[in-house]
Amino acid sequence: MEVYPLAFPSQAKWSYQLKDQVLEFYLKLVLIRRFEEKVLSAFKEGVFHGTTHTSIGQEADAVGVISQLEQEDIIVSNHRCHGHFLAYGGSPRALFAELMGKPVAVCGGRGGSQHLHWRNFYSNGIQGGIMPMAAGMALAEKTKNSQAITAVFIGDGTLGQGVVYETLNMASLWGLPLLIVLENNHIAQTTPSELTVAGKIADRFKAFDIPVEEINSSDVMAISGLAGRLIADVRHYQRPQALIVDTVRFGPHSKGDDTRSQEDLQALMRTRDPLCIQASRIPRDVREDVDQEVEALIEKSYQEALNDPSYDPAHEASVTTK
Amino acid sequence: MTQSVLDSINAGLHQALANNQQVVLIGEDLLDPYGGAFKASRGLSTVYPSQVITTPISEAGITGIAGGMALRGLRPVVEIMFGDFLSLAMDQILNHLAKFAYMYNGQVSVPVVIRTPMGGRRGYGPTHSQTLEKHFLGIPGFRVIAPFQWKGESQIGSPGQLLSDIIQTTTQPVLFIENKLQYLLPLLDDNNLVDQDCQDISSSYQLENPFYRIKMRGAPEPTVTMATYGYMSHLAIQAQKELAFEYEIFCELLVPTQLAPFELAPIMQSVKSTRHLLTVEEGAGSLGWGAEVLAQVASNLGGNFISAARLTGAEHPLPASRQLEEASLPSVKDIVSAVQKMV
């Protein structure tokens, strides 16, 4: 089988230089946004099998945090993982192919949208279940003295799961190098967090003596600055740390299941769009170049994935008769 | 001094921790001088302090943590204090540990061993006495092992040696089912199992784990196949003797140590000639292990059966009362009469 390029296209392939972080972050924000938009539109065309959870509006969390991790660090993500995967450097073509269920994809099409593993990136689709998995990885790396830290992404909806608190307890007791990134988009599927979360989220971490920082922002520069400091702390002090990012999910939970007022969302998009915030820092001509090139890359990746061979059910049959 | 099953398991854990720095034991109340609720872990935290982690009461959490450790190159062994508490770890087993290798397209292995004691007759009542492994059988990617009290030659296949080998070599998550009453039993060999012949026939069938066949010594060809595992095999050995000496009914007893994935061939081979099959299990039986044995034998043998039956625990929670509990679990007498009814 062909050795499939799973890594993000290298900088050398871009026509301009990624001179600074501002531009690099912008590129990744746009990449995630265009990828997710393509996913939602292609779903309507019946290209994908199953379902998906997009992270439109939350791109700055993924890029801000993951850009601050070292190569040996570990990322554990959840059902809404495309943005994290792309921010980590995963190939959009491989991810499109995964959603199309192709043999050459990230996990050979077995995992699909929610179940990815590539290098030190892992995701799974059970709410909260990834917390002990991430803590175990942090414990293993601490045992090995590797200096690698583990970053786990959860949401406000995940806070209803008991295993989260079992994990916070042990992570604190054992001083695990674990960064818990809580992307608080204030909605669990369709239920607002006022109906699911009692008290203050930060207090839940404080109860376990886990230091917690909170940022209400969609600005990737602000998030990356804070994340960088916290990641350094986790590595240096070998202890857990929580980072709550108050954010906005612009899109539906899944494909078309948004029951919120579109007017309210439009208003939020005007002030909380991470792409607009970052775009304001970049000269217009450069920005337009990036936009075009990312758009072209997404389209090319999508077409390549479409053209990648599919499984032949006749060869793959594993139904048994006993 | 005769070694008990508990001694053997304890020795197996010592061996695994000593042989391999990657092995880490994680569970509740493991530290010496207590050494675990049933003492299987006694002495380990003293000799290997950095490899033994005592935990809060968090079965789901510690099972998940073991999964994460295994993904990053360690070989964790989880002790779940009572088998009854295994249900708390079900999501981690089913949706995490057992799935990773397949859903990540074979890029990872998850060498976790989860050990836990099942079983009743201790008067612990509805939530500390159950035999629950049937709920964990048939999970793709998940192996279930129940040791037999056989010492054999130079310990190969003994409960402790089996455990130690699996801990050090497995590439997938394994549930290792122990049993509270089996802990107390002596290991058997040809010196103390005097009326019967016990043979590990796994190599004849290319099986990875021991599969025992026990026959009455010097007896005529058996006319009944009994299949069982774990502590129930101890009762079946006694029933086999009683049936031979008192009623001249000769049984072949088959004792797998690997329950899942299911291994049919040795049982099939035996039933082909005896055409009578009794399965014995301690847990509530409907939709369980015996049902699978019978279904697979039937679909392979067609109508060439004379009779088949399942002897199982009661279809209600286990009561605390000594008399009620005893009436709810298969006994030697129950096995004897079940076989008598078949022939």
Secondary-structure topology with pairs:
The complex is a heterodimer of chains A (322) and B (343).
Chain A: H1 21-44, H2 59-66, E1 74-77, H3 82-87, H4 92-99, E2 117-118, E3 121-123, H5 130-143, E4 150-155, H6 162-173, E5 178-184, E6 187-188, E7 191-192, H7 201-206, E8 212-216, H8 220-237, E9 241-246, H9 262-272, H10 274-279, H11 284-307, H12 313-316
Helix pairs in contact in A: 1-2, 1-11, 2-8, 4-11, 5-6
Chain B: H1 5-19, E1 23-28, H2 44-47, E2 52-55, H3 59-71, E3 75-79, H4 90-103, E4 113-118, E5 143-145, H5 159-169, E6 174-179, E7 196-200, E8 211-216, E9 224-227, H6 231-247, E10 251-256, E11 258-260, H7 265-274, E12 276-284, H8 289-301, E13 307-313, H9 322-328, H10 332-342
Parallel strand pairs in B: 1-2, 1-3, 3-4, 4-6, 5-6, 9-10, 9-12, 12-13
Antiparallel strand pairs in B: 5-11, 7-8, 8-10
Helix pairs in contact in B: 1-5, 3-4, 6-10, 7-8
Describe it for me?
With 322 residues, chain A is of the alpha/beta class. Chain A has a single domain, classed as Rossmann fold. Chain A has helices at residues 21-44, 59-66, 82-87, 92-99, 130-143, 162-173, 201-206, 220-237, 262-272, 274-279, 284-307, 313-316; strands at residues 74-77, 117-118, 121-123, 150-155, 178-184, 187-188, 191-192, 212-216, 241-246. In chain A, strand 6 (187-188) and strand 7 form a beta hairpin. The longest helix of chain A is centred in the first third of the chain and has 24 residues, at 21-44. Chain A is globular, with a radius of gyration of 19 Å. The model of chain A has no long low-confidence stretch (mean pLDDT 92). With 343 residues, chain B is α/β, with parallel strands linked by helices. Helices cover 34% and strands 20% of the residues of chain B. In chain B, the strands form two sheets. Chain B has a seven-stranded mixed beta sheet, with helices on both faces. In chain B, helix 6 crosses helix 10 and helix 7 (265-274) packs across helix 8 (289-301). The longest helix of chain B has 17 residues, at 231-247. Chain B is globular. The mean pLDDT of chain B is 96. The A-B interface holds A 74, 106-108, 110-111, 115-117, 122, 124, 126, 129, 131-141, 143-144, 162-163, 166-167, 169-170, 173-174, 322 and B 24, 53, 55-56, 58, 60-74, 76, 91-92, 95-96, 99-100, 102-105, 107-108, 295-296, 299.
